[in-house]
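User: What would this chain look like folded?
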Amino acid sequence: MFLLEPSCLATFRRVLALALLATLAVASAPDRAEAVGDSSPLDFGEDDLEARLRYEVSRAPKGKLVWVKSDPGFQNGPFVRSPDSIWVVRTSDPGNGARAVRRHAGSPGQAELVELDAQGRELRAHSIGNSTSTPPVFGALGWIIGLKNGTVPMAWSPSGSMVWQGPHVNGARFLEPGPKGGVFVANGQGAMVRLDPRGRQLFSSFLGGGPVAAPLVLPGGSTASCLAGSGALVVLDGGGAVLFRDDGARCTASPSLHPGGDLYLPAQGGIRRYDSKGKLLGTVPLTGSLGRALLLPDGSMAVASSSGHLAMLSSKGRLLWTFPLGRASHPPWVQASPTGGLVTTSAVGYVLAINSRGRLSWSYHHPAQAQSAWVRLDGAVLLLYPGEGLRLITPPGPPRPGSEAARP
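Assistant: Here's the prediction, encoded as structure tokens.
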């Protein structure tokens, strides 16, 4: 039997006691990322996020450029608005084709709907009236709903014929399809107008200020809006009456609807959670200017911050992981891929596919910043680059066994 010297035995006992104390301390420490009720914001850190991003990119496979549709008529994505804006990829056909909106080459001030097949070939183009600074939306029956002269809502069929013309809405800025057809129109002065599927006005209500983005349309036709300037949250019922409002919300983007029925609102200091009656349930603390939360079917949510991270949180608000994106003036877009994981972008020109565990699956780099994107059913990503056109990027083939990308 092996025996320790007395001096060695004393040292061994001290080390064992310290290890036991450390284990107990870790087990009893509170989870800093447990969000609701946590008083300290989640600190993303001040390290070099761009260097960390480039390191992650260097280890991951690269996406493949399949085709390019060069067309300077595709000017801007739905996140960039100016009098000459043209928009792209608001919805898809049942397959992997796409429909996009661009400036009409032969008619200044006019827009046209372009239908593309999965290989980027142009199938047909239909004029849809005057282009404006407000992106069109795709409503019921495949209708394209836009604004004529920036003030008159109009609907066109997929073949390009006009279906209806609604009433004049001065200063219209945002359009959002209704739950059973029709559309909601919000202007910069704070009016919320609801039109039925035939373009007739159902109500016009005053929010108290213009929204920062298109409203969230809830089941039954109620809406939730974040107001610019004041940062207030305003929720209207389907008839235009105020259900509740929070003037102290300090929101930064439109809310999202949790599968359980709660609202998640990006705000200064974190994501605020409200129940259906407007009661504040708690706050998920995050720093930076937050984009709209992407809520997933299991109740988890992804949110990008101008402070330089993409964060994934559990349905209870616990931090699951973060991924470095690099600091930006505005939060980047984030989309869920039908094949699993998330697709987002960075301020330094990377398009990033991140799996459910927060690891980079693949990336694609272009010197310009992608202004908008659409993730196809097959996981390929259609990107709009202003002044250049469209690019389709597909994921790389299966990773080599044992490589970093092959790890679960």
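Confidence is low (pLDDT under 50) at residues 15-46, 75-94, 399-408. If you want, I can go into more detail on any region.
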